[in-house]
Amino acid sequence: HLGYFFGFRKQAYEHPVRTNQIPRQVPDQLWYMNPF
């Protein structure tokens, strides 16, 4: 119960790395890479 109490009061966890804000183009998958 004590761990829940302290964990609930803590700030939300922030990831130490920053994500890139520029979206990257996802290349089209080739026909033989598709399982269907």
From TrEMBL:
Protein name, entry field: Transmembrane 9 superfamily protein member 4
Superkingdom classification of source: Eukaryota
Membrane topology: Multi-pass membrane protein
Coiled-coil stretches noted in the UniProt entry, renumbered to this chain: none
Location(s), subcellular: Membrane
Cellular-component GO terms for this entry: membrane
Signal peptide: none
Homology family: Belongs to the nonaspanin (TM9SF) (TC 9.A.2) family.
Gene: TM9SF4
Record key words, sorted: Membrane, Signal, Transmembrane, Transmembrane helix
